[in-house]
Design brief:
The chain contains 10 helices and 9 strands. By secondary structure, it is α+β, with helices and mostly antiparallel strands. The chain folds into 2 domains: 156 residues, Regulatory protein AraC (Jelly Rolls, Sandwich); 111 residues, Arc Repressor Mutant, subunit A (Orthogonal Bundle), CATH 1.10.10.60. A hairpin with a 2-residue loop joins strand 4 and strand 5. It comes from Lysinibacillus telephonicus.
Length: 277
């Protein structure tokens, strides 16, 4: 996840706070699936857990922050340890959804210095429980403070560079995502082992190389769906998928909508905005 893109998104979008809750789950328990209409930010404060988002599994640990797009089904499956996490939900204006693809995206962030991030997250939970008449105003302010601190923590962590240049690897992926590249090929191109490439991606980016490649491909597909009239099969091929049916399945797992549904929904929102103007 590019920190500057994330910062620009939160700085530019019209964000409104929805709710904040803390969940504590005992070892070896599975939570029921829940449908979430708006976007969610999940912060693991202790323990380990596996979250399944629209059939895709994300393994999280203390310090992991998972962003989940709207219109998704979330289920939690824990490991052998007790787990505590905070779930914060927010919205942006409907006519902004097509402008900010990050709102509908699922991605993991890992932070080392979690103290202040957790502090603001817990304050959100406590204020949301409050019957104070000014609760909504306080929560709005706290949400912005939480986001600023999260960005700050991510920026500080990014300064701790690994032995190889991750930016060059990311740039390579950005240049070759439309090709049928494999993780082995990427690792070989930089003279490292696949296992090492995976470990540094998990450590510094919060996702595996294949997850990063997939997320980038889907992001590019979203842009093409919004900005062009290309057919789905053309878009599939142009972002590195030979099988357009497989592309559609991956796209739906990542965004909660099929490519056709995504295009129609964004087109509808754009027309609504024009009519309002």
């Amino acid at each position: 996840m590019n920190i500057e893109d994330l910062a620009n998104y939160f700085a530019s979008a019209s964000i409104s706070f929805e709710n904040a809750i803390q969940q504590v789950m005992e070892p070896r328990t599975k939570n029921i699936e829940k449908y979430h209409e708006c976007a969610s930010i999940i912060i693991i404060s202790s323990g380990l857990a596996s979250f399944t988002i629209n059939e895709t599994s994300y393994k999280l640990k203390t310090g992991s922050v998972l962003h989940v797009g709207p219109s998704t089904v979330i289920s939690e499956v824990l490991s052998d340890t007790k787990c505590s996490y905070i779930l914060i939900q927010y919205r942006i204006l409907e006519n902004e959804v097509s402008i900010f693809p990050l709102y509908t995206s699922h991605f993991i962030m890992n932070i080392d210095n979690q103290k202040k991030v957790f502090q603001y997250a817990m304050e959100l939970v406590e204020n949301f429980r409050s019957t104070d008449v000014y609760m909504k105003l306080k929560c709005k302010s706290l949400l912005l403070s939480f986001i600023v601190e999260l960005i700050h923590a991510l920026k500080n962590d990014s300064k701790k560079q690994p032995a190889i240049d991750l930016e060059k690897i990311k740039s390579y992926i950005h240049q070759h995502y439309a090709e049928s590249i494999t993780i082995n090929e990427i690792a070989s191109n930089f003279g490292i082992k696949r296992r090492y490439l995976t470990s540094i991606f998990q450590r510094y980016i919060g996702s595996s190389p294949i997850e990063y490649l997939t997320a980038y491909r889907i992001h590019k597909a979203q842009e093409l769906l919004l900005l062009t009239d290309k057919q789905i099969i053309e878009i599939s091929n142009s972002v590195g998928y030979v099988d357009n049916l497989y592309f559609s399945r991956v796209f739906k797992k990542k965004t909660g909508m099929s490519p056709t549904e995504y295009r129609k929904y964004r087109s509808f929102l754009t027309k609504e905005k024009v009519n309002q103007d």
